[in-house]
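G., the chain you wanted modeled:
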Amino acid sequence: MTARKIMIQGTGSSVGKSVITAALCSYFRQEGFSVAPFKSQNMSNNSFVTVGGGEMGRAQAFQAQACGIEPAVEMNPILLKPASEMGAQVVVLGKAVSVMTPREYHEFQPHLIGAIRDSLEKLSSLYDIVVIEGAGSPAEINLRRFDIVNMAVAKMAGAPVVLVGDINLGGVFASLVGTLELLAPEERPFIKGLLINKFRGDISLLHEGLEFLEKRTGAKILGVLPFVDDLRVGEEDSIPEWKRTASRPAESQKLAIHVIHYPHISNSTDFDSLETEPDVSLRFLTRVPDSEPFPDALILPGSKSTMSDIAYLRTAGFERYIDRCREARLPIVGICGGYQMLGTELLDPENIESVMARAPGLGLLRVTTCFEREKKTVQVRAVDVERRHEIAGYEIHMGHTDGPGVARPVFQITEGMGNRAERFDGAKSEDGLVWGTYVHGVFDQPLFRREFLNTLRKRRGWPPLDPGQAHCFTESFDSLAGLIRKHVDLAALDKILNGTL
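Predicted structure as tokens:
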């Protein structure tokens, strides 16, 4: 049986394609269908590791969870991970191929068509419905001949397209009409519906504009989705603007946790679960704070280009700020690339990440990292060495870290790729205030997360809190499906899906 398909494209980036795809996945699942997401090519440094050790976009993993299924690399066969001056790392069916410049990648693209087609066919044979997501805009005429993610995929899949516009940005009518005008004549018939996203206010004020759109374009207005503040969904790559600030005052009754936002930050979703805690105020620092007080904890997140980002820490003044936090005896945590930066030295003899063969680390942990060509991608289970709390997460890195500091590990890995394992991960300073780990997702585990936060509360003289529930998106999935039910013309959606509109 071949799955029915529907594709979500947008008038530009960040109009809500990923969220709407997840919402449709959740809605169709509630309707009793087996459903899977698909995005042929994704550019993101927020990635996920599958059970089989393959790497894929975090957004597609989130969408798979909305479908109630295990994420698989076929849902995102091509992942581009932007690096620094080296270009972008190209990941094909879960495995890193190489770092390519834009020109090199465009020359390589013809070799990817088979992987895209095979992945789409596999999903189509396994599920009732496949919800396909595009990227950016299909009307980028300068990139049309390189398209392997928008109209090229709609044609390959024979999928009807719903075009999404963001009214919150302004100019939504021009964006929708202009996008359709710039499509090639053979592409326009694929657009079967228009969807306006992020609307605020009285919808009756839109009626005249909606009537104009239908008359001008001939496409059905499928619905108007409201602006929903602070959606609890997996971010594809960006961090919301309200989090990216160094100046917003901390809430006095909450723990202030700051995450440094360097240029090549990766896996920023590692901190979503911290943000959900009632006693936490989480901020991403884009510049050194102008004044004290210090936060309760400082975190160095993952990086797609550790050598470049540690240079940024120095030029932007963050190295001195980190030293001041250390002098004030504040807890400092490094995840993956952040862990590597906390060490004494970074070695890159094969120029895997940079043209520099070495760079000094921040010197807060007695470890040295040497970058290696083989990329490690593995789901793991582990226990906290100190308190034996269980955690689960995944590793994504291209380096090996060793030195005296690893004699004080953070975790004992008990399982990797579904097999029993016996190894240690991470390192701690002698006083235990600085620690780093390669495991992404450590704060998603309620007991470990709450123990970390209660330690910070104790430093403030506050009483401990009980652990909350595990960070999950079940309620978000239901809310997203509810948006479809309430604000979308379900009869028209059904016709589009069945090819009768």
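The chain has 14 helices and 26 strands.

Shout if anything looks off.
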